[in-house]
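Pilot study result, target chain (490 residues):
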Amino acid sequence: MLGQKLVFGFHGKTLPEEFKNLLREYKIGNVILFLRKESAEQLRALCAEIQSLVQEETGYPAFIIIDQEGGMVTRLPQDAVNVPGAMSLAATADPENARLASEITIRQLRGLGANFNMAPVLDVNSNPANPVIGVRSFGDEAERVASLGCAAIAPYAGSGVLCCAKHFPGHGDTAVDSHLGLPRVDKTEEALEQLELIPFRRAIEAGVPAIMMSHVLFPNIEPEQVPCTMSRRMVTGLLKQKLGFRGLILTDCMEMGAIRDYYGTPEGVVASIKAGVDLAEISSAFDLELAAAKAVNEAAERGEFDVEEIRASVEKILCYKKMLAAQAEPGLCNQPEDRRAAESMARQAISQISGTPFRADENTFFCGCADYRASGAANADGSAVTFPEYMANAFGAEGFVTGKDPDEEEIRAALRQAENCEKIILGTCNGHLFRGQLALAEALAATGKPMAVAALRNPYDLSRLSETVWKLAAYDYAVPAFRALEDTAT
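Predicted structure:
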């Protein structure tokens, strides 16, 4: 039954034969869909195939898991409705939108066959330099994150889809992306109680069914120098015993750099199970999945696991699966009213921070970088349309696309193109982390022409800019946000 505790994923848009054989051999009970799929029809067929295979091989339904936070972390195809991300929803100033976004997402997942969503993010983004959370968070105030997080969680109850609060006990005060390295936070448990734990406590009180552990070191709480995912003090001591959580506990992806490069993925999976985690997840690396499945079985044969704890964990997993099966009902994917609601939320999210508004026209110069993968959690494919191209096309104007960290040559080229225009609108994308974007903004502002800057990811870019600039925050590098900015500048 150890296969019920593993969650594996795969590369590509169809199930590879070697992956099917791995599921069969180790009776893997759960699959995660990591990369965005090509169409709703293709994803629906894939989920049906996964469910059939897992049911046939294990005798139980599969958790089909997806990271569908909205905004910069979306795995659904374009012909499903992708909602705005957490910070966008917070910016609408309407808590009802957090609930509505979850309802829309639940309908998409039910219509496609997924039954477990790795959302919402309950990290308090207290560090503006955080490279991995940012707009995925509801904000930098614990009570606000807690309130909106609970609103997002509520619609999942009885829906046939589970949700998961993440990344316990908090990933918001880190300056390292755990996909690439090992973050460290030097806070005590008492300090966590004042900020990071507030949303998680509220979510537990609200009945959240699952919580994901973070790959973060907290050396003042766990002296063994292992991240929360592998720490019995954090998983069992803090989350289960002190906070009283009785739901499912998941790891973040165990092929991320924080685990793979510092501890080893197979070793990390075994350690996480010993720590008290219910579900250990590997997103796509087949060799690591095979090695982890072998390592878990070998650890069991050596008697390294608490047999009673494993039995109780598997029983809990199967109990949730039985509950989902009883609640399952078809959902309607890509309904026009849901798409309209998602676009309305994107419009409501546009925040006019300061400066004097103006109307864009054919004499406006649009500039900015193309989308890029800001962290390992972000969509691998990014936006198919760049902000400058979209806006230039909308207004019949000039557009200029730069790299994510423009060099002096790109800045000079942008200035040359801006010479013949009367107004400038620049889109930044985490410019606070890339000095070239801010240098471009400063150079364009120095022309003295009316200028707007739209922050298309984290809004922290705007704090570095001249007060003469019209500052807008859109929170998302995506067409609905572009369309909302078009409306704002019309």
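One observation from the pilot: The chain has two domains: 2-327, 350-488. A full batch analysis is planned for the follow-on phase.
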